[in-house]
């Protein structure tokens, strides 16, 4: 899907990212661009490159990074749709996926105005980058990208024989990706139901469920390896749907994934350009600050949990509610506000 978007999605995201200096619009650009690409790592790495090239200031990039944190949660919410035919399972799956949405939204609600007032993220990122500005270039290949590359190249080769424009080829590749996505989600849900009931219950209850720090560390480590918080959080959805994990138990893993996903941008920034390194560390500080503010306080921790369960309950009763939630939150609202900014020159 990421490859298919290169024909029009990545270019669209690039034009979006570099078109505004308004921090509010930058926030929604981050949401929309990441929802399209379905990877906050891609968006933040792109932003790092723009900052390093001088196309975007550090201050202008920070709201986009915040928005990317929200946009990346659309993937695991789509994964929950694979359980839509089973009411109770769908309710649990959606609560397990949207807790990531609401945590990141709550973090932005708290930290966005704080950053606009104090610029503490910019200052913290600048300080951390000064410690690493002499680090040489590092290249790290995602194992996921390595595994799927032969299939991507195979599809590309087959499509290249068709006498159609490049954009049409991109659309065809996207349709194939979507078909594979939903086929995979259906079978993941089916297989996980068979596997997790027997073995994962014991593992998660005895290890992860009773140790918050271990859960966070596991989420962070796995995400750093696969370079995608969406993969980590999407794996959790079938476990929550099957009733093996409660969302309170999956929550720390999700938070660890939020930190782990910053590794890609940090690695992308190690080119010697201090501005690029600064924005990479801003992403890291943003996610750690959100955890420190929200998770230790029971009242704050319960907000995303309760909102996730509320959306799940309503969506279990009215399936269209889930579709409206996804389209409205991740696509229509950001796109509408960005369009208005163009009209009124915000």
Structure description:
It is a single chain. By secondary structure, the chain is mainly α. It has one domain. It is 80% helix and 0% strand. The protein is built from 17 helices and no strands. 45% of the residues are buried. The mean pLDDT is 80.
Helices and strands in order:
Elements: H1 9-17, H2 23-37, H3 40-52, H4 58-71, H5 74-80, H6 87-118, H7 120-132, H8 143-160, H9 166-196, H10 200-208, H11 212-226, H12 229-241, H13 247-260, H14 262-269, H15 274-294, H16 298-317, H17 319-344
Question: What is shown here, in short?
Answer:
The chain has 17 helices and no strands. The protein is mainly alpha-helical.
Count, helices: 17
- Class derived from helix and strand content: mainly alpha
Element string (H = helix, E = strand): HHHHHHHHHHHHHHHHH
Residue share in helix: over 70%
> What share of the residues does DSSP label as strand, in percent?
under 5%
**Total strand segments:** 0
- Which regions have little confidence, pLDDT < 50, spanning 5+ residues? none
């Amino acid at each position: 899907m990421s490859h298919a978007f290169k024909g029009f999605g990545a270019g669209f995201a690039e034009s979006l990212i570099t078109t505004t200096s308004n921090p509010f619009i930058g926030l929604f650009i981050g949401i929309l661009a990441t929802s399209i690409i379905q990877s906050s790592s891609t968006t933040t790495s792109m932003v790092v490159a723009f900052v390093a090239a001088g196309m975007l200031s550090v201050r202008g990039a920070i709201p986009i990074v915040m928005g990317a944190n929200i946009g990346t949660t659309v993937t695991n919410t789509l994964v929950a749709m694979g359980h839509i035919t089973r009411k109770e399972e769908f309710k649990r799956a959606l609560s397990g996926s949207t807790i990531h949405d609401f945590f990141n939204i709550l973090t932005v609600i708290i930290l966005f105005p704080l950053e606009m007032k104090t610029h503490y993220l910019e200052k913290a990122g600048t300080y951390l980058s000064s410690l690493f500005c002499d680090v040489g270039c590092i290249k790290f290949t995602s194992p996921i990208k390595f595994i799927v590359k032969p299939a991507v190249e195979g599809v590309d080769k087959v499509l290249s024989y068709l006498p159609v424009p490049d954009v049409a080829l991109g659309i065809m590749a996207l349709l194939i990706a979507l078909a594979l996505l939903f086929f995979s989600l259906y079978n993941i849900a089916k297989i996980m139901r068979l596997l997790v009931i027997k073995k994962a219950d014991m593992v998660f209850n005895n290890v992860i469920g009773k140790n918050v720090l271990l859960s966070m560390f596991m989420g962070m480590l796995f995400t750093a390896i696969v370079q995608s918080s969406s993969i980590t959080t999407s794996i959790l959805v079938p476990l929550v749907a099957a009733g093996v994990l409660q969302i309170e138990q999956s929550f720390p893993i999700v938070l660890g994934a939020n930190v782990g996903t910053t590794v890609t941008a940090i690695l992308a920034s190690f080119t010697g350009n201090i501005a690029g390194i600064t924005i990479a560390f801003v992403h890291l500080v943003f996610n750690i600050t959100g955890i420190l503010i929200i998770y230790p306080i029971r009242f704050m921790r319960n907000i995303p949990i309760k909102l996730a369960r509320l959306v799940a309950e309503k969506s279990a009763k009215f399936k269209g509610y889930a579709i409206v939630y996804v389209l409205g939150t991740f696509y229509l609202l950001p796109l509408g506000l960005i369009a208005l900014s163009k009209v009124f020159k915000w």
